[in-house]
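WARN retry 2 of 3 for item q-0093 after timeout on previous attempt; input resubmitted unchanged.
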Amino acid sequence: MKISERGVALLKSFEGLELEAYQDIAGIWTIGYGHTGPDVRQGQRISERDAEALLRRDLRSREDAVSRFVTVPLNQNEFDALVSFVYNVGAEAFRRSTVLRRLNRDARMSAADALTWWNKATIGGVLREITGLTRRRAAEKALFVTPTTPPLVRDPQALQQNSRVTPVEAAPRRNSVAESRTVQGATVAGGAGAAASTLGRDTAEELDQIESNIEDGTGMAENSSANESSTPPNRSIDEIPSAIVDENGDIILDDDSNGTADITIGQPERPSKHEVHAVEAQIQFALLVLIILAALFIVYARIDDWRQYRR
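OK item q-0093 returned
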């Protein structure tokens, strides 16, 4: 199968004609109708006839690539659009593309949509959308979906090809609820809110316990039923009738006036309540920031969906 003159005209309209070698936006030396290769050099000049010959020669390999890779029958418009596409992106990129995978499953409209994804290029190390590529992909898609024969509108078997039925608007929707950006943002916000409320509840309970201990006269003890035989934290060694103190100053034996002995074993230092509450406050602040960001993402997603899909 060969590209038609209509396909060639489409390709020429986007490639443009340059009779003197130049570097394209990607820095590749180019001449004629987008011809590249080792035979193109700086300062080279050709005639329009030479440019036409180079184009026809380059098209043969693109036509061959489309014929080899596509396994479903194509009409002329579909073939022309694909040859223009391959001329621009290359045969290897076409072989690995979603366009080809969908087309070989005979999902032609989905394949046409996938053509429009190829509208970006890496310029100076940055991936950018190129307006010229966006327009070219739109034109190739339009040619691809244009029928070569009029539809048989009275044929019940050709219902899918009938374009004269009365249409209704049906905005595209995502395949599942999990793909909704609104649901994703709400999930993150809900999880962060649950974590923050759990931390806040634990902190409030501990503060209530401390206040109860103070009211009961047990000071800042963590447990209101603390062992009465424990040595008060503010009691000095001089006030203890009899005590055995180790070399670090920790009381290991205390004889009280009742003749009983309380053993207090020194414990390693641990964070104070103030330090623990400070860490929890920082975590709660971070979770609050996450909740705010998730809420902003939800607002953005809804505005973007309205703008894109009018829903």
